[in-house]
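If your schedule permits, I should be very grateful for your opinion on a structural question. Please examine both parts with care and let me know of anything in them that strikes you as inconsistent. The record follows directly beneath this note:
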Amino acid sequence: ESKGIAVFDLDDALITSGSLIKFTRPDGTKGTLNAEQYASNYEDLSNQGYKWDFSEFNEIVDGKTAPLFQKALKLQNKFGPKSMFILTARPPGAAKAIFEFLKANGLNIPIENITGLGNSTGAAKADWIAGKVGEGYNDFYFADDAIQNVKAVQSMLDQFDVKSKVQQAKVKFSLGMNESFNDILEGATGVESK
């Protein structure tokens, strides 16, 4: 019998926000990264000895819905919110802020289905997903903006006899669509893209 589950990363998959990740370099200097920069570089920077501070991620700063939010709403209407989960690198303390933001925008995922790992590694997300296989889920949809997390989860799911669809969320592409389309029209018509 099929038991489906939809698992979404939060930042740059379901929402965009102004929340920043603080870091300390091995030499003691400090800085910040946005969620996209962090997702692209955290493995290399962690290997270089960077230390991370996610304290700003307990809140949603200047939150807006991202492209996969509409897909989540459709899945909610099709399967109900109880089989939907948020799996984020944000700390566990962010669950209430995440719950309130999603609810205000029409996505009613139960607060107990929002997991803040406080860990952004692909292995942490893959381990969590493996736990859901152990709970009997056998039809997975997983979306994350970090390619290393997508690959880790897909690799783990490939080891089980389960149905799965794993997708990388790409916010940047969708944000630049109007400009790209206008450039294509300029090339075809000669009308300036501005």
Observations:
- The beta strands are 4-8, 15-16, 21-24, 30-33, 51-53, 64-65, 84-88, 114-116, 139-144, 163-168.
- The mean pLDDT is 87.
- The radius of gyration is 18 Å.
- The first helix runs from residue 35 to 47.
